[in-house]
Model the fold of this input.
Amino acid sequence: MKQSGNGFSNIGFILATAGSAVGLGNVIRFPFVMGESGGGAFFVIYLLTILFIGAAVMLTEMVIGYSGQAGAPSSMETLSTKGKETWKAVGWIMSGSSNIIFSYYVILLAWIIGYIWLSLTGSLAHDPKEATAIFEGIKTDMFTTFLFAAIVLAGTFAIVARGITEGIEKLNLILMPAILLIFLGMLIYAATLDGFPEALAFMFHVDWSAVTEKVVISAVGMSFFTLSLGSAIVLAYSASLPTGTNLIKSIAYVVLLDTAIAIVSGLMIFSFVFTYGGSPSAGFGLVFITLGTMFANLGTLGHIFAVAFFTALLFAGITSAVSMIEPMLKSIHIRFHVSRYRAGVYLAVPTALLSTVVILSLGGYFGTVNLMDKLDYLLSNVLLPLGGLATTIFVGWFMDKAVVENAVNGKLGMFFTLWYSIVKYIAPILILVVMLSLLGLI
Ligand code: PHE
Done:
């Protein structure tokens, strides 16, 4: 069923929301957090949090967007039973936070384009020392970063300004299958490597003694980041859904796709690491430095892999970047009665400025202050959890229960009461505890 005018089809919505969820987090962050947190045990806890907290919070965003039919500020204002002005402000803050993520995410995408270039020209480094130097060089090369980031920024804004059907949906219908194909192809190759059984054992062998409080906390934080929760993205996308959509089924597909890509990229990366040497807990450099060097040493095949891998990574990042623009663009478009293109221009200017400041900080303009790390810390540990806290409290305490039931449309059956109590009591407390501990306050 398709909404008349500018809306998602059911499959378009699933692919676009999965496109937002599947991103650099799955390929870069998931394997290294898993590597640092002891493999299998982290994985089980991650799956549990995705199922019980992530999916539950995702449904709160969907219920708000789907019932409100607008971006976060308008939806939260109309649907709230009290405190309308406050909720409107919360909606603006949540939408703005996804633009802040965009401002540094676009820089990572610029670096990935740099790596595609290095792979195409056969210039990936052959030893880790040289690879580290190249990585540091790319990070501090302000001109190239600025140029590539500007191209990505202009491209993504143009796509989002075109609208849901013609812009966002079309992009995801093309890129998502491409990402899946590339990753599956690479997984098949990885399965033939000597290190594959070790990778399987690392990911799926559960050693409960490795589970510390820190592992649990980082799993909850990851589940928010990877499902793109807390920044009004799922909310804004859900406002463009056809009536009668089965929200529960959509969530199931999104969670499945997101988790599948995380597993596949983990298996692939660890198979390479265990076959060619390297440490699974190599941190952020795991992908750019460790993997880049391995590809370089594999000859022609390695270079083809490198191009395919970094291209898939770029595609995954672009479908996420696009989603980060929509909450604010939609809200400006609706509240100020301007076209999507005009809203895009209004928004692109401050976003580009913030990105430029971040690039300058990476180039050493503000001494040792690395704004990318600072913003990532602020987002992952403060704004996203706060956003998740806000939507659960909103749906649990400030929305008419009948409206919530209507949006869920009986599809949860007897699980409705379970979900509603998670949203009302368990999730807010848990998120608060996680947040305070991420901030080192408890
Ligand atoms: N989910 C995206 C990823 O895994 C990142 C993201 C976080 C996107 C928060 C939007 C909001 O890379």
